[in-house]
Give the backbone structure.
Amino acid sequence: MGDATNISTEQGRQDVKAGRNWYVIHTYSGYEDAVKNALEQRIETMNMQDKIFEVVVPKETEVILRKGKPVQRKKCIFPGYVIVSMIVTDDSWYVVRNTPNVTGFVGSGNVPVPVTPEEFGVVKKRMGVNEPKYKADFSEGDIVKIVDGPFATHEGVVDEVYPDKGKLRVLVTMFERETPMELTFNQVQKK
């Protein structure tokens, strides 16, 4: 087993009694999907389907603006972490721990600590949200130019940003009065 430390046989037996749990493993940031694929291949080739059940990279959908157009993309919720559903034994621990780009389990010392069902429920809920989050670099006080709609070419000041809706309120001066307008992120451009 090289320099990897073993989980004691007693600890392995206790975990088998405890059954299947979710565990968090550390990876190098940016390698989460590669670790997931490598671990799934190792599970298959080493016949660990009865000990390691599921590998999840928690991601959520966000909307960013590219060339003024909204584009959806998947973003890691917890960069550098992958969640694994497994029964911890010496063998299953060894397979996960020695997967390329895995740096270890989250826990104290060499003993992996399972994620509570409540904690995993929060992660699942966040992953399952159908409404994408919007990412924009607008903040209150920014001067913007309206590029779409009936007030195109007008300028205004950002009064409030609603990132969950992909909208913002802009104060536009018309007839010497500030008029609030609710616009989407792709209808304005920073000056």
